[in-house]
Amino acid sequence: xxxxxxxxxxxxxxxxxxxxxxxxxxxxxxxxxxxxxxxxxxxxxxxxxxxxxxxxxxxxxxxxxxxxxxxxxxxxxxxxxxxxxxxxxxxxxxxxxxxxxxxxxxxxxxxxxxxxxxxxxxxxxxxxxxxxxxxxxxxxxxxxxxxxxxxxxxxxxxxxxxxxxxxxxxxxxxxxxxxxxxxxxxxxxxxxxxxxxxxxxxxxxxxxxxxxxxxxxxxxxxxxxxxxxxxxxxxxxx
Length: 238
Hints:
The structure is a single chain. The protein is built from 5 helices and 10 strands, in the order βββαββαααβαββββ. It has helices at about 40-50, 95-100, 110-120, 140-150, 170-185, and strands at about 5-15, 15-25, 30-35, 55-65, 80-85, 155-160, 185-190, 205-210, 210-215, 230. The strands form 2 sheets. Strands 5-6-7-3-8-9 form a 6-stranded mixed β-sheet, sandwiched between helices. Strand 8 (about 205-210) and strand 9 form a beta hairpin.
């Protein structure tokens, strides 16, 4: 089982303290709802866990992942997929965006082709394959981004306000894709300042409040951290 663990984290922007906490972990087979007011630091926390932003102090490490190649300087990149509420899409067609991730998939060509076709059908993108991604509506862009992640079958997935700018049809299609990933064992952290169709899949809540993060129900592993040979350990604070 793969896991990302954050220990003794403090996050500041200048003199402003966003939050501090002793320990949080995101693992396969977990689905967690990340709650907090606008500006509370939900996106920042996701970016820290995905290796895209360093905390002001503290340590983040992973368990269960294969070592990175020597040229990848950030050990967290590629360990988890992070999707912003305004996802980055490549300058090309919908089909190009879906096919772009194929070299990153640890599957046979037949499995990738089958999974890509299934993603197209689940996200109802068949009629849009030749359309430029830049011309899609907000809901269509989200469906494309989640379909692209679905093809990769990530072990950990972080969804930042995934149902924003979505109509009911898009929300239902995304719910189906995310439910499939949950059944396949993908660990997920879903950010939303209010309940939505996806948060009903969650069995745990992280609430950012009063410069701290409260976990409910409490399932934290309270064992003291002792590095082992199976762990990839590193300090991410500047």
